[in-house]
Amino acid sequence: MESTAAAILWLVMWWALLMVQLPLVRLLASRKTGSMAFDPNGFDLQGYGRRLTRAIANCQENIPIYIGVLLFAMVTDTTAITNATAIWLLYARIAQSVTHLLSTSSPMILLRFFFFLLQFLLIVWWVVQMLIR
Predict the structure, then answer these.
(1) What architecture does CATH give domain 3-132?
(2) Rounded to an integer, what distance in angstroms lies between the CA atom of residue 87 and that of residue 6?
(3) pLDDT of the residue at 27
(4) Which of 19, 90, 123, 126 sits 20 to 30 Å CA-CA off 33?
C-alpha cells in the first residue's frame, strides 16, 4: 500500500479512536451529574472530556481536507508528490490531538499550533506542486 493510501486509512482510524472514547466519557459524566444534557462543544464536560470533544471537533474540521487532497493525488496519479511526506501529515495530526488531550496550557497550545502549522504547510506544498505539474 502506498504511503498516501495508508495515511488516509490511518487518519480515519485516528479519528475513530478519538470518537470511540466520547460515549464512555459522556456516560461517566452523566452518571456523575445525573443529566443527559449534551453540548456538542464539550462545555458541559470538565477536563479530559472537554479536551477530547474539542480534539474530535478539530479532526472533523481538518481531516476531510487532508483526505480530499490525498484522494485527489491518488485519482490524478500524483502520489509521487504525497508519498514521501504523507506519513508526516499523519504524525503531525496525531501529535496535535495528543497535545490537545494532555493540556490547554499556553506552552501546549503553542506546541499544538506548531503541529497544525506543519499539517497546513504540507497540504499547501502538495497542492502547489500538483497545480504546477
Answers:
(1) Up-down Bundle (1.20)
(2) 8
(3) 85
(4) 19
